[in-house]
Amino acid sequence: MGQPSSQADFLKVWQLRLRALEANADELADLAPAREKLQSIETRAQAAFQRQSAAAAAKQEASKELTALVAEGRLVMALLNAGLRQHYGKDSETLAAFSLLPFRGRGPAGSSAAKKGRKKAGGADDKPVTPPPAEPPAPAPSEVVL
User: For the chain, which has fewer Cβ within 10 Å, the N-terminal or C-terminal residue?
Assistant: First the structure.
């Protein structure tokens, strides 16, 4: 068997070694204190491994429960939001106290275009837009330096 790399591999190797040491306890009496110490470590490691497994199972159960609770809570929140809007009215500013946005309308037509810096088409002040020239204009004869 190769060198152990995982915790489970270490536990397996320790168990095999302890069985072999116990089977040959008469010949290896001088190693009894180390064998007892390894037995104690192996017993405590097994207990920790069982606690770890139980914690992982508990975590999975808690995750399932949390997922179900969040789904149920979202449905109840939707019901409460609708109830608050029905009670106070969809445009009531009181909804802000419940972290809900009141309906404030869409605003006058074209107001969103004005906010974005666009001009309305067809206005009296509209001038045709001409692109800039590709080359700079030639200097006037009075500007030419000799």
Answer: C
Task: For 14, list phi and psi in degrees, rounded to 5.
Answer: -60, -40
Q: Is the dihedral of CA 35, 37, 43, 45 positive or negative?
A: negative
Contact 90, 105 (CB under 8 A): no
DSSP string, 95-139: GGGGT-PPP----STTHHHHHTTPPPTT-TT-----PPPSSPPPP
Cα(108)–Cα(10) distance, integer angstroms: 75
User: pLDDT tens digits, residue range 8-49?
Assistant: 899 999 999 999 999 999 999 999 999 999 999 999 999 999
Distance CA 68, CA 133 (A): 66
State pLDDT tens for residues 92-121.
999 999 999 998 888 787 766 555 555 555
CA angle 45, 51, 57 (to 5 degrees): 140
Measured between alpha carbons, how far is 134 from 77 in angstroms, rounded to an integer?
A: 61
Q: How far is CA 50 from the centre of its chain?
A: 30
Contact 21, 35 (CB under 8 A): yes
